[in-house]
Design brief:
The complex is a heterotetramer.
Chain A (H helix, E strand, L loop, with lengths): L10 E6 L8 H16 L2 E6 L4 H14 L2 E5 L4 H10 L4 E5 L11 E5 L1 H17 L11 E6 L4 H17 L4 E6 L7 H13 L4 E5 L1 H14 L2 E6 L10 E7 L1 H14 L7 E4 L6 E4 L9 H15 L16
Parallel strand pairs in A: 1-2, 1-3, 3-4, 4-5, 5-11, 6-7, 6-8, 8-9, 9-10
Antiparallel strand pairs in A: 10-12
Chain B lengths: L1 H29 L7 H19 L2 H25 L4 H24 L4 E2 L9 E2 L2 H4 L4 H5 L2 E2 H19 L1 H11 L1 H6 L4 H27 L3 E2 L6 H11 L4 H21 L6 H28 L1
Antiparallel strand pairs in B: 1-4, 2-3
Helix pairs in contact in B: 1-2, 1-7, 1-10, 1-11, 1-12, 2-3, 2-4, 2-10, 2-11, 3-4, 3-10, 7-8, 7-10, 8-10, 11-12, 12-13
Chain D lengths: L5 E12 L3 E12 L3 E6 L5 H9 L6 E6 L2 E3 L4 H7 L1 E4 L11 H6 L13 H14 L15 H14 L4 E5 L9 H14 L3 E5 L3 H7 L2 E6 L2 E7 L5 H9 L17 E11 L5 E11 L3 E5 L6 H9 L6 E6 L2 E2 L5 H5 L2 E4 L3 H5 L6 H5 L3 H4 L4 E2 L4 E2 L1 H14 L16 H13 L5 E5 L7 H16 L3 E5 L3 H7 L2 E6 L2 E7 L5 H10 L6
Parallel strand pairs in D: 3-8, 3-9, 6-7, 7-8, 13-20, 13-21, 16-19, 19-20
Antiparallel strand pairs in D: 1-2, 1-4, 4-5, 9-10, 11-12, 11-14, 14-15, 17-18, 21-22
Helix pairs in contact in D: 15-16
Classes of the chains: A alpha/beta, B mainly alpha, C mainly alpha, D alpha/beta.
The structure holds adenosine-5'-triphosphate (2 copies) and magnesium ion (2 copies).
């Protein structure tokens, strides 16, 4: 079923399992959708399911009724998505961040290689904790990470982060805290980070959405360092956020939509978005630059190696990274 | 050492919002109002604190606005539960629901964001440094550098104790809970005391909310009260409203919360460590019930 | 009786009017909003079927709360009981393999067992240690939440999934659909009828009601208070647990994060709005399900954000209950004034 | 005194309780300065309502009140108190957790500039009032620990502390012992002589005649008449109250008692910290015999009932009914042998919000198989309704239908339902705890007849009553409880109220 010969789509739905406002993943996707609306003049809607499983099916149904192109972040309703995609082969389903394959193979999946950027985040943290010339960095080779939950996506971040740090010095110890699903409790995020700093970590990577803002604030309070996630958070606490691991969902959405618009879209693909494709990245520039140029150069060199393929990053494969 | 100090400081900051909300609930508890709206009041307070602080650049105005915001919920509570005599439980549930919806809506409407609003222009409540105490090892590190609102909470505990047990206001307040008919026939309308208790609860929850969003962290997040209002309710019921007991339970809760996080480093799955505060509450309840049984049989 | 229905209707209308004012103030068109709300919840085959289906996890915990409260048992543990029921049904569905005619009832029973056991914990703590079931059930809700979260991330996780969830249960345990109607609504109807029957016709139900109204009287009258407390606790736990099982068997067929959402707690609220009446709980459950289901359409068509529907629900709850009580006194006072006038002449 | 100037006039007062109870039907009455004015009437006659209207606790639908020559309208008790009118309620409303002085000063507390209560001064002020009126009260005692009579005094003091001129007392004697009543009356007389006006509500006609200057009689919401106490008699008052003649003498016919039905052996109840509530009780109640239990409240009656009913476990001793040892039976098992009329209708005897039939079938639903269907799983509602209709008819209950909510019945009718329910249980032993407390003459008479009827049927009756007159009217034998001990077991023919009164108060007969 070739959709490329069809007329131009008029309506687009962005369907997410959670809710906007994470300052990160979902919001980045929303920005892409807004850009599509502006650039191509299509009508767009966002449907939020607020993690309520009962809403998944009706939302999907409403989206199919309403739109020609549906971008979904499908954690939790992969099964229904397959069903609907089979039922409506003329609609375009683009699934973001996971890989879903229906029997008619019409769903396009966008898969982010978050290991690449998280690896670099680990490199940044590893280099920083060894560099005692940076203010307040202690000689202990300890860094930390705070995750919102212990799900596979967070685990993938943690996995690559640890690999990145250990690639600098295998003696570096990575302390981990998970908030047990309290993604919105920034006070808890802060407390977890404070504990890590008290345990002598000097850099903490947050993978915890709204709760993670608390991690950044903990860094300021202890005059130590944090790494942001998903969007560029370096200037949220200037001088204390030394890097951000960026996931550019919006870019992926815009790319796919552009292909649809140009008629080059192929259904049923799995599009890999690593650093080379502009899907994920590490951001180091900041108002107040803490990292010495040497570290920045070193990270940028590794980044280039990943882009040109000379450095392969190990992908997460369901290992238990939480000890 | 550092970990221990961190744990104690974590305990104090974890306890503060719960303590403030629970003290507020203590007033309504003694006045015989079944008030479960602390959760909503905390959340509303947290929102308005950020609103005020962000626009005026003054944390004080933020705190005042937080109190006004929480008081607004108190007024609705009074209108329905005291004036119109609507079931108090229903009123509380509806207000909690209302608070979540309304703050989320205003967040989007006023700050054009969803989820979290965090901005350097939000002025935090200052921390109080005690130059003298600072030099004492260990104790100094705990005493000095606490956020102002922590001291306010401590003060509020003592003040609440004094108000409830020593003053005319307290005598009447407790009378409203023990036997409203008596209070009515002695010429003081018990409904007035119930309304006053709700106002007191609004003020304290406003303070607690401002600690959440301007104290411990410096941002507003949807639903950032995260169940603390419910915990405060449990604290109140556990100690029959006694302000000192409430302080103790709040600290216990703050401690076990931090302990739960700490335990993660020791191979316990995070979901189980997250249960620690709730299990601690159950254990506290066990001892409380056992003591009550002993007292009853004695 | 007619008065009761009238009061409920007046309350709903007043609340909707108030909601309309709120919408107007925020610059939305109330008519279009309500139109969208009800078009996406009631008027149409699929919307109506969805409203019915979404009512299941509201009505069952609602019944549970209504029966408990009316019996003087403060079981607020429906959220925890619901997810434990869901977990039991899921685990059963993962490991059992029976023909559908057996599998479905077995899973339903398992889910009831899950809720029953979780409520049983609270009941035992109350019975033997005198720990108030009010706090215990609230705490057990939190604990159940974390426990099920652990269960779906560790022992029962689907290794192929990207977020914490179990694999799908055996298809023999899937609730069949009739067109758009999910057969889980049959379980709901049956539960309403059965619960009503037990509560209003059984001897035990009679004792529960009287105990809820005056426990000392019931005790002196020879009712076994402790046994009744246990029975109510277990039965209401089973009802809430069943809701969880049905959600799994009729919905995603697996336990995924966010499965319980806020349903059970909303159910408790509905029971109180319904003044613990069983039939009223059922009707209000449908009503609130319609509001929640329709909110989606509201968002899609008029782009009124869904937090407005939360505010609207809060207004509905408050106004329905307040106006019910206000109208009752109003009607009585009017009758009293009429009587007084007669007496004077 | 009967010629004093008018202080209060209530004119054409109409009060309807929603939806349709016509509690006051065009009542006009006047009260004079410095008199003791009693108001008598059957239950539900509207006495309390009339006083509540005056006191501002409830609002009349029409009519006016003239106080000291001015029309007044009190919207709440505070206003009435400010104007000098105070009321002690029928149900004592004190705060048991508070001390005597805290209860008294509540609402007018002396405070310092911080709002802190000035305990010293408050206690002293209360002490002064206590001494001034010679009340003999400890201001620091907690109310939950003092006797009923003392609580009554606290109520009165509360009003005196506020310097009221008019004292309204709603049935203050209902809970007092014979010895306490004269003391109260002396206090009231002293107050009257000091210039206070006292409005006094009671059912007990001889008291009223003794105490009052004038008496107003009410019936069914209407005022019948106001008469000077000196110009009327008990018989006449009773006739005005119920609208017919009432007989005050016993109709108990002599009847030889049968074999023992209830046997209590060495029954003791000791609390954990050693306080003895019941001390080695031994007695029996025989078939066809009414045994009255006299005693000042709080001397073990409550615990006796609790141990007989199985609410509390005795520390030692045994209880037999017809030689069956029921000491370790649970409540339901005991209910096969015991009919029980509790003292507090609303708390122990019925559910007020339930429909009448649900209250009427309690206990029967477990004991009588005809209430069961489906192997005892289902309640046979049709039979339950029939049963209730029969009960309504046989016990002259006035009720609109078996489905009417119990609370809509008047107090007397509620009590008839409970008595009827219990007597229909057909058990050999009947335990009555204050069976006519707070009932009017008519209902009391009816219930007394029922009690005598079951005696005639040969059932054994144990009756606890705070009303000595009732005990002497009905009992064959009188037990006196004093500090948990049985200090008297006297055939009624061989004793008199004075002797029983001394036993109640002192535990022994005064030698003087
Ligand atoms: N949301 C609603 N919409 C319309 N009518 C309602 C609604 N809720 C309640 N009612 C009406 O109120 C009536 C009273 O409900 P209730 O549950 O108290 O009756 P019931 O179930 O017969 O009583 P019981 O459960 O005590 O036997 C219902 O029968 C119904 O007609
Ligand atoms: N709050 C109330 N609501 C409804 N009806 C009431 C209320 N209080 C009293 N009544 C009714 O009003 C009538 C008069 O009651 P009232 O209490 O004045 O009688 P009373 O003469 O004081 O009787 P008693 O001797 O039992 O105290 C009774 O029928 C009673 O049932
Ligand atoms: Mg009902
Ligand atoms: Mg009266």
């Amino acid at each position: 079923p070739a959709t490329s010969t069809q007329e131009q789509p008029k309506r687009v739905v962005y369907l997410i399992n959670g809710a906007l406002g994470d300052n990160a993943f979902y919001d980045s996707g929303k920005a892409g959708i807004d850009n599509i609306a502006r650039e191509y003049g299509v009508e767009t809607r966002t449907i939020e399911c607020n993690f309520d499983a009962g809403k998944y099916e009706p939302s999907l149904r409403a989206a199919v009724d309403f739109a020609d192109v549906i971008f979904v972040i499908s954690y939790g309703f992969e099964d229904q998505l397959k069903e609907f995609a089979d039922q409506y082969p003329n609609k375009i389903f683009v699934n973001i961040d996971t890989v879903v394959e229906n029997s008619k193979k019409t769903i396009t999946s966008v898969d982010f290689i978050e290991e690449e950027s998280a690896y670099l985040a680990g490199v940044v943290a590893g280099l920083a904790t060894l560099d005692t010339t940076i203010p307040n960095i202690n000689p202990d080779k300890i860094i930390g990470v705070v995750g919102g939950d212990v799900d596979p996506v967070v685990s993938a971040f943690v996995f690559a982060y640890e690999n990145g740090a250990k690639s600098i010095d295998p003696e570096i110890q990575v302390l981990k805290k998970s908030l047990g699903g309290a993604w919105d409790d920034s006070a808890r995020g802060k407390q977890a980070a404070l504990q890590l700093y008290d345990q002598k970590a000097d850099v903490v990577f947050q993978v915890a959405a709204a709760a993670g803002i608390g991690v950044l604030q903990a860094a300021r309070e202890r005059q130590l360092y944090a790494i942001g996630v998903d969007t560029n958070q370096n200037d949220l606490e200037p001088g204390y956020v030394i890097a951000s691991d960026i996931k550019n969902v919006g870019k992926a959405i815009e790319d796919v939509y552009k292909a649809i618009n140009d008629g080059t879209y192929q259904p049923g693909q799995v599009l890999k978005y690593g650093i080379a494709q502009g899907g994920v990245d590490i951001a180091l520039e900041a108002q107040i630059q803490v990292l010495p140029q040497s570290i920045i150069d070193q990270v940028m060199a590794l980044r280039q190696q990943i882009i040109d393929g000379s450095l392969k990053i190990e992908l997460y494969n369901n290992q238990n990274v939480w000890q | 050492m550092k970990i221990l100090i961190g744990l104690i400081n974590g305990m104090i900051s974890g306890a503060t919002p719960i303590l403030l909300a629970a003290l507020g609930g203590a007033y309504t508890y003694y006045a015989g109002v079944f008030n479960i709206a602390m959760e909503g009041m905390l959340l509303t307070g947290a929102f308005f604190a950020v609103l005020g602080s962000y626009y005026t650049g003054s944390w004080l105005i933020g705190v005042l606005l937080a109190i006004l915001g929480a008081l607004f919920l108190s007024l609705i509570f009074i209108l329905f539960a005291v004036v119109l005599k609507t079931d108090e439980f229903v009123t509380g549930i509806a207000l909690n629901l209302f608070a979540v919806g309304a703050t989320t809506y205003m967040l989007r409407k006023i700050f054009s964001v969803k989820g979290v609003f965090s901005n350097p222009a939000i002025q935090p409540i200052p921390a109080i440094r005690l130059p003298l105490a600072e030099n004492i090892p260990f104790v100094g590190e705990i005493l000095s550098g606490q956020i102002l609102m922590v001291w306010v909470a401590g003060l509020a505990t003592i003040l609440t104790y004094f108000l409830i047990f020593q003053t005319r206001f307290g005598l009447r307040l407790r009378a409203a809970g023990y036997n409203p008919a008596r209070l009515d026939s002695s010429g003081v309308p018990s409904s007035r005391m119930r309304a006053l208790s709700l106002l007191a609860c609004g003020v304290l929850c406003g303070l607690g909310g401002s600690f959440l969003s301007l104290g411990y962290v410096n941002l507003f997040a949807e639903n950032m009260s995260a169940g603390r209002g419910w915990i405060s309710l449990a604290a109140i019921i556990l100690v029959n409203g006694n302000p000192l007991g409430i302080a103790l339970i709040s600290l216990l809760f703050g401690f076990s919360d931090g302990l739960g996080l700490l335990l993660q480093g020791y191979r316990v799955p995070s979901q189980f460590t997250a249960m620690v505060p709730y299990i601690a509450t159950l254990i506290a309840l066990y001892f409380y019930a056992a003591r009550k049984r002993r007292l009853n049989s004695a | 009786m007619r008065q009761k229905i009238l009061n409920a209707l007046i309350g709903i209308v007043v609340a909707l009017l108030l909601g309309a004012v709120l919408l107007l103030l925020q610059g939305y068109d109330p008519l279009a909003t309500y139109e969208a709300l009800f078009r996406y919840s009631l008027f149409g085959y699929y919307p109506f079927a969805t409203t019915l289906r979404n009512a299941v996890p509201l009505v069952l915990p609602g019944l549970s709360a209504a029966i408990a409260f009316a019996s003087g048992v403060v079981n607020l543990g429906q959220p925890g009981q619901l997810v434990m029921g869901a977990l039991f049904a899921t685990v059963g569905g993962l490991y059992l393999d029976l023909p559908p005619a057996l599998m479905i009832p077995v899973l339903a029973l398992l889910s009831m067992l899950g809720g029953l056991l979780w409520a049983g914990v609270a009941a035992l703590l109350r019975r033997f240690f005198d720990m108030s079931e009010f706090i215990v059930t609230l705490m057990l809700n939190m604990i159940a939440d974390f426990f099920t979260a652990w269960a779906i991330t560790e022992p029962f996780k689907d290794p192929a999934a990207f977020s914490p969830m179990t694999p799908q249960i055996n298809p023999n345990g899937w609730l069949p659909k009739w067109g758009e109607f999910n057969t889980m609504i049959l379980f709901m109807f049956a539960a309403v009828i059965l619960a009503w029957f037990v509560f209003n016709r059984w001897k035990a139900g009679y004792e529960w009601r009287i105990t809820g109204q005056n426990a000392l009287f019931a005790r002196l009258g020879g009712c076994n208070i402790n046994r009744n407390f246990m029975a109510v606790m277990l039965m209401t736990g089973a009802l809430a647990g069943l809701a969880g099982g049905l959600v799994v068997m009729g919905g995603p067929h697996r336990f995924i994060r966010g499965l319980g959402a806020n349903y059970a707690w909303d159910g408790v609220m509905i029971a109180i709005v319904a003044n613990n009446g069983l039939i009223a709980t059922f009707l209000y459950g449908l009503f609130f399900s319609a509001i929640q289901t329709g909110a989606l359409g509201m968002e899609l068509i008029t782009s009124v954000p869904n937090e407005i529907s939360q505010v609207l629900q809060a207004v509905l709850v408050l106004v329905i209950v307040a106006s019910r009580e206000y109208l009752n006194t109003f009607v009585e006072q009017r009758a009293a004034r009429r009587r007084a006038r007669e007496a004077r002449t | 005194m009967t010629n004093n100037p008018t202080l209060i006039e209530m004119r054409h007062i109409v009060k309807v309780y929603p939806p349709s109870v016509l509690a006051l039907d065009d009542v006009t009455v006047d009260f004079r300065r410095g008199e003791i004015h009693s108001i008598v009437g059957e239950n539900g006659a509207g006495k309390s309502t009339l006083m509540k209207v005056l006191y501002g606790l409830t609002q009349a639908n029409s009519g006016e009140i003239i106080y000291k020559g001015e029309p007044v309208h009190f919207r709440e008790p505070g206003e009435a108190i400010a104007a000098g009118i105070g009321m002690v309620h029928q149900e004592i409303v004190l705060i048991p957790e508070y001390t005597v002085w805290e209860n008294i000063v509540l609402g007018v507390e002396p405070v310092n500039w911080l709002g802190k209560i000035d305990r010293q001064r408050a206690r002293q002020l209360v002490k002064q009032k206590i001494d001034e009126f010679q009340f003999n009260l400890d201001p620091d005692a907690r109310v939950e620990s003092i006797s009923v009579a003392a609580r009554q005094k606290v109520e009165i003091l509360t009003l005196l502390y506020r310097n009221v001129e008019v004292l309204i007392l709603d049935e203050p004697t209902a809970v007092l012992t014979p010895q306490e009543i004269p003391q109260l009356f002396a206090e009231l007389n002293r107050l009257r002589d000091g210039g206070h006006t006292i409005l006094f509500i009671s059912h007990r006609l001889e008291e009223v005649l003794e105490l009052s200057d004038r008496i107003t009689v009410m019936r069914k919401g209407k005022k019948v008449d106001t008469v000077p106490a000196s110009a009327t008699t008990r018989q006449e008052l009773a006739r005005m109250m119920v609208g017919r003649d009432v007989i005050f003498t016993t109709r108990r016919k002599p009847q030889p008692p049968g074999e023992a039905v209830l046997r209590v052996e060495n029954l003791s109840l000791r609390e954990d910290h050693g306080r003895v509530r019941l001390n080695n009780l031994n007695f029996e109640v025989r078939a066809g015999e009414i045994v009255g239990v006299a005693g000042v409240e709080g001397n073990g009656q409550f615990e006796l009932v609790n141990t007989l009913m199985g609410i509390q476990k005795p520390t030692s001793g045994r209880i037999f009914i017809r030689n069956v040892d029921i000491t370790h039976f649970d409540i339901l098992q005991r209910r096969q042998y015991i009919s029980f009329v509790p003292q507090d209708r609303g708390k122990m005897g019925a559910s007020l919000v339930a429909p009448l039939w649900e209250d009427a079938i309690m206990t029967h639903h477990r004991l009588n198989p005809r209430f069961s269907q489906w192997n005892g799983l289902l309640l046979n509602t049709r039979f339950a309704q029939q049963f209730t209709r029969d009960l309504i008819e046989n016990f002259s209950v006035v009720a609109p239908s078996p489905r009417a909510p119990f609370r809509t019945l008047s107090g007397g009718n509620q009590q008839k339902v409970i008595v009827g329910r219990e007597l229909l249980l057909q058990s050999d032993f009947v335990l009555l705890d204050q069976p006519t407390r707070g009932l009017d003459v008519g209902s009391m008479e009816y219930i007394h007849d029922q009690i005598l009827r079951i005696r005639a049927e040969g059932r054994a009756v144990l009756m606890i009553s705070a009303d000595l007159e009732e005990i002497f009217l009905l009992s064959d034998r009188i037990l006196v409880l004093y500090r948990g001990q049985l200090v008297g077991n006297l055939p009624v023919e061989q004793t008199n109220p004075q002797e029983v009164g001394s036993l109640m108060l002192e535990g022994q007969v005064q030698s003087s």
